[in-house]
# Entry
Amino acid sequence: MKTIVLATCLTLVAAQAQAISRYDPTRLSCGKVQSTIARQGAVILRYQSKRVPGLPLYDRYVQSQQFCTMGEVRTRAYVPSADTKSCPVYNCKRPDNEHFRHRFIRRH
# Structure
C-alpha cells in the first residue's frame, strides 16, 4: 500500500513539472501573452536581457494567486513583448519580511 501511495505522489509531481508551457514573450503581442497565461494558468516566459547581452531571463508567470505555492503572493511584473517594452503580468514571490523585521526591532 505504501508503495502505491509513493508511486502516485511521484507521478503527480512529475506530471505537474511537465505540464507547464514555455514561451518567448518577445514573439507574442502583450494581449497574446496575457491571454496565454489566463488560459493555461501558469507559464514560463523566457527572453533575453536588454541590459546584459546574451543573458537569458525567465520566470513562472501566473493567472491568479491559486497558482502560487504556500508562502508566496502574486505580484505584478513586466515582461517585454512584440508590441511593448513592458507587458503587465503576474508572478509569485515570497514577501519581503525585511520591512516587518525593522519595525519589530525598533519597537522593542
Notes: The chain has three helices and five strands. Residues 2-19 form the longest helix (18 residues). The helical segments are 2-19, 30-40, 98-107. Strands lie at 21-23, 42-48, 56-62, 73-79, 87-93.
